[in-house]
Amino acid sequence: MCGIVGYTGPATSDIFLKQMNSLQYHRGPDDEGYFRCEKNNVHLAMRRLSIIDLENGKQPMQINNGDLVIIFNGEIFNAPSLRVELENEGIIFETKNSDTEVLIRLYAKEGIKMLEKLNGMFAFSIYDKKRNQIYCVRDHFGIKPLYYSVENSRLSFASELKSLSILPWITKAFDYHSIYHFFSFQYVPSPDTIYSKVKKLAPAHYIRWNLKDNSYDVNKYWTPEFNNRKFSNLNEASDYINDELKKAVSRWTLSDVPIACSLSGGIDSSSISAIVAMQQNKKIKTFTLGFSDSSEIDERDTALKLSEMYQTDHSEIVISPKDLLRDLDKMLVSLGEPYAGGLPSWFVFKEMSKVVKVGMTGTGADELFGNYGKWYPYEKPYYKSKSFLKYLFKNSGSLKELKNNERGCYYHPLYFTDRRKKNKFFSFEFLESIQNSSEKFIEFKFDNNLNVRDAITKLDLNFQLSDEFLYMTDSFSMAHSIEMRTPFLDIELVKSILSIPSKLRTYFNDPKKLLKLSVKEILPEELLQSPKRGFILPMDKWLKNDLREELIRFSETSYLKNQKIFDINLQKNFIKPFLDNRTSNTDQVWTWWLFQRWYQVNESHH
Does residue 247 sit in the same domain as residue 203? Predict the structure, then answer.
């Protein structure tokens, strides 16, 4: 597990490469490595968190007399079987069990077609000296991040945005579309970033850069497929999931160091923890988060039931809202882009990292099993009733927007609608540069060839999963030098789940019925019956008390004039009505405040 950085083009000195690499020290405090090819102007570096082949897996790794060089962030979980295949064909390995060497030898044999064989979480770059090419690759779901920029005939890339932001040849202008979409989704959607000249490599994509003429292309190497295998009944499908899940967890526990589990008390993380506990021949560590003043969202009781059932070495982390506020600036620095989603995971990774380097999480199961009924509005007439439409308009704009972009409106009740954004929120100049709505942005991403349930699953896997949940998980875990793994996103398991017809895979009123059935033998009964509980911050109370002065300061006319993003009368039209209890738009004010706090923290770090 590492951080990788690199760029092409002439280097006046090594200082930029060293600075880029040191900015992501936390991603790999165990080791660092550098590679330069003066002839082709290629500069690569990495930081390493040693997890597999601790002694021999050093990077950048070179083979074939330096003709091939790789820097790699992540883990390839089918590396042992790929290694056996290559050895059977006469290929000799120099390391004991390094998955980095498996990657580079597989590329030497098969070229970029090798991507079809990989199962894991990864972002890597390969320099192919003979072909005069550089490849940059990101895994199927975007578990590992990769940012890149193409300016002045140079390719620059890094695991974190802040490593690119120090390069003098990269423009730091904000992308106004990204800011606009942030206020719809609470995160910046791929392939864009908050900066107009920097992109995120989208999940399941790779860049091929030609060093001869500095041309490049971006290619997709995988897309989710829905095969509809035949199952005679629900039990047969659940047995199939049970088997495949156990195989995936077995693959994803590949490690030369101890592993712990994040245990929330929900079905997803509990399933992973239970299987890890059964498969490991030693006691596993589990970590649960609790809240000192919010019993209605505290899941420690259900998590404890599972811990007792499997005799895990269990730790409870209890935080108060004030703890979260105290660490907020550190979170915003680690994120690099504005984000207003869930924040409490920070504390789980913080505690875990004190005792282990590797943790397991249940991320990905929601998206694979119906995502809490995100598809309901499309299928059930009741959802198109007056009461539902009223709710929709409150959250997602106007009747005109619904007519033009029905799926976009239903998919995500947006935090700020087009109508709200244009109504005295953004500055006139800002809005002049925005061409399309966020509803249209989602509409465009729908696959019309699939039924609605499958189309939404595909959209979830390509969109919110990578840009919100996995982005937060990677940023927060790597800030504490811990690698979090997501076995539900094992590519073989995902293919198996997506092969189950959507009518068997997803259900009204009980979206995770199939998953629950497949793990019911290994989980406590209380946990299976327990309702989903989310962590709701006391946002209204904070904003009107502890953060009141900050809201006023961030909305001063002089501050807004300097930003050139928001309407200069925002305090009068948006903040004051909220503070005086004349409006009840806490979510919107919170999202705006987090953007302003991010802006302040990250601008000061530039």
Answer: no
